[in-house]
Structures are given as C-alpha cells and as structure tokens.
Amino acid sequence: MEATADEVDTAVRTAHAARGALADRTVRAALLRRSADLLDEAGEAVIEAADAETALGPGRLTGELARTTYQLRAFADLVEDGAFLDVLIDHADPGLTPPRPDLRRYKIPLGPVAVYAASNFPLAFSVPGGDTASALAAGCPVVVKAHPDHPATSELCAALLHRAAREVDLPEGVVNLVHGFQAGIDLVRHPLISAAGFTGSVRGGRALYDAAACRPHPIPFHGELGSLNPVVITEAAAAERAEQIGAGLAGSMTLGVGQFCVKPGLVLAPGGETGDRLLTALTAAVSDTEAGVLLDHRMREAFLDGVRTRAALPGVHAPVTPGAGSEHTVSAGFLAVPAAHLAAEGPHDLLLEECFGPVTVVARYSDEAEIGAVLARLPGNLSATLQLGDAESAGTDAAGRGARLLAEVTPLAGRVVVNGWPTGVAVAPAQHHGGPYPATTSTSTSVGGSAVERWLRPVAYQDTPPALLPPELREDNPLGLPRRVDGRAEGA
Length: 492
Fold this sequence. Notes:
- The chain contains 14 helices and 20 strands.
- With 492 residues, the chain is of the alpha/beta class.
- It has 2 domains: 5-225 and 443-484, Aldehyde Dehydrogenase, Chain A, domain 1 (3-Layer(aba) Sandwich); 231-418, Aldehyde Dehydrogenase, Chain A, domain 2, CATH 3.40.309.10.
- The chain has a 7-stranded mixed sheet with strand order 11-14-15-9-8-16-17, sandwiched between helices. It has a 5-stranded mixed sheet with strand order 18-2-1-19-20, with no helix packed on it.
- The termini are far apart.
- 50% of the residues are buried.
- InterPro entries: Ald_DH/histidinol_DH (IPR016161), Ald_DH_C (IPR016163), Ald_DH_N (IPR016162), Aldehyde_DH_dom (IPR015590), Aldehyde_DH_Superfamily (IPR050740), ALDH_KGSADH (IPR044151).
C-alpha cells in the first residue's frame, strides 16, 4: 500500500496539472460545499471506519465530522467573500515625494500543497481537514500523505472528495492521496510541491521542516509539532473555586484520553491549604475517569515509558498514578512536584516536555517568583491558560496580578485562555491555532479563516495597462471584491 517514488511523482504532477482548474473562485466554493455534503451523507460509514481504526468512539467522531464539514463550508464562504485576496490599489500620484506609480496588489495561490495527516484527528486534521480545505480555498491542489493509523478512513474520505470534484466539473487531481513513510519524505522534496502543512510529533515535523529548508528551492513548511500548554492557577482563584477548577482541569487533561494537542501538560498551582483543596478535587475527578484506548500501541508504550521516567524523578509523586489499564487501555493520572525543581536546569527538565496521553504535571509554587522562574524556562506553546480570582480578573486587585500574568504568558503561546480550558479549539475567523516553536514552525494558524494565508503569496502590478490586469485588480471591480483603494476601504 505504500506509494513508490514514481507514484508520489505521479500524484504531485497530477496536482500540478490541476492548478488551472481551481482558478475560478465560484468552482472552488462549490467543491468545498459539495465535499461537505458528501461527507455528511456518508457520515455513518465514515464514522464507522474511523472508529474501527482509532477507537476514538462514535460520540467523539460524530463531533469531529461536524467540525470537518463546518470547516469546509466556512472556507467556501470565505472564498466567495474574496477578502482573503487582500486587494490593495494605490493610484499614481506624481505629486508625492518620491512620485508614486500606479500599484495594484493581491494574493495568488502558491501551487500544489503537501498535507501530512494527523494521528489524533482522522477527519478534521486529515484528508478532508483544515489544511486541505484551506489549501483548496486558496486555489492550491493538494497531495495528502495519509497517517498510517487510519488508512481506510483516508481512502474513503479521498474517494468522497474525488466524487465532489467530478460533480462540480473539476479533475479528481485537485486532491491526491499517498501512503507510506518514504512517500512523506519524497513528497516534501518534490520540486513541484510549493508548501507543506503538518500536524504531528516534534521529531517527525522537524525532520520534514529541515528537508523543506534544504531543498534547492526551499518551501514554506507550516508544522504543528508539540505543546505543553501551561496553566497558571492563582492562590485567589484556588481559594474561590478549588473544586470547580479541579474538575475542569481533570476534564480538559483527560478529554480524548489526553490526545488533544492543547491538553494542559503543566499546571502551576499554589502550595498550602488552598492548593491542597485543589489537588483533592483533581484527585477525585481524575480517579473517576475511565481508562481509555490510545491511538496505537506505539503511543501507548511511549506514554507508559514517559510516565515511568517522570515519576522516578526525585521529589515527584503521583496522587493518582497514570499507567496501564487493561491490555489495550491506559488510566489517567497526574504527577505533583515542587515548582522549585523546575525553576532551574536539571533532571526535572523532562517534566517540561510534552507527554502524549492522559497525564499532567502539577507544580506547587510557594510564591510568585517561582511562577515567573518556571514560565521563563518554557518553550513555545499553542495555548497558555490563566485561572484568576474575581478581583484579578476585574483588574481591581491591588497587586495587578491578572494583567501581569497575562503579559507574562502572552509571549509563550498563540492563544491565551482566561478562566476556561484550552481543549476545544473553536473554528472562527479570530481563532489562532499556532504558537512559538516548537508549537509551530511558522507564525500562521491551522484553524480559522486565516489558515488560507499559508498557501498564498502577494504580487503587485506597477503601471500595468488596464487590459492586461487580472479581473481582481481592474478599476471597475468586475468581481465585486472587498478592497482598499488609496488607503481606504472602498465604499467607506
């Protein structure tokens, strides 16, 4: 089933040949909507296939399918609106110093995009997922490298997207599918691939990122690699609602058997009585969580080994021991450690690395200086969460703690959550799902309408005769696009 080098080459060349077919935005929108419709119509079969390969369960997969089809339709709306083309027109003005020529700028698709499917989202971050949807919205054909954990689901979804293409009079080559480890390497190295999107491990993503950068013609590589997603719980927050926070944290860290990319992996919690109340609530909630199945045996073994290694560090104890459940499952738990152990370089640095699965590390701090010392040592993250007290949230506490902590965590993450939990990434125009390295390898988002920007590049035309201009840049705006003319929104 693994694609040969020749098969990868054929898939990429097929995608490259389909570029012109995606030039019409109306057709692109129709493709995205028809893909969503067909996925909904085949929902029962899609969910059954995905559950058989991932054991994520019909409930979780039903929600993921709904998210996937919503994304496709949202990108169809974005394509029809046209604002993503970022049309800018500056008319000639010889009276300026220096004189300004006539300049007209918009964004065009890069070309064929390689998409690397994720293990933990067989739909929303795989063949019909956000990378594919946003690339097609941009006008870029796609070659998806299927994840080995769900090949049958990938084939089924690809077949539905091919059918959608045929039904809107597009070639099937606008979406292509390959399987295999070597195929993934051959794909990112192929000279006709113009950009790549990846969701997976730091090790795998970094290898592909380096390969993309080492090409004779380097390409953008938008990788989501790994994230600790720190949580800071202030003493005031714990005093006001320890039980609520403990239950919320347990739900967030065990959601999807801890296999979400924004699972809280490190929690800074107060010591003393308020912190004890919080840990009691967390212990009760995690203890009530049923064991679950991880996506594959390799991940299960990595989780068990990661927990054992971390639990063996001096000063670490497990109020609820995470580990093996039955032959195929794992049980949730958490580790506790004094925050001082993480404030300086040493063997406890392992606790500052992501452990994929239903486990988190609770670091008990004695003062605010320890919070700052630990945060200063963290790598980039997809999210950072603050649990604040009422006065801290309102900005009325004398110490100004809420604003100070917000400023402290903002450099660490692409999304800052206050008095909530990071799991559950809303698909919305204002969403940002990315962050400083190693969370991602670029500053872009893989969720929300702005994800389309990854597959576009700007081009400006200077003093170009009107008859030669693309329709998007003509003076009479025949396509009715939103645009800025001479620095102002047209029609404003």
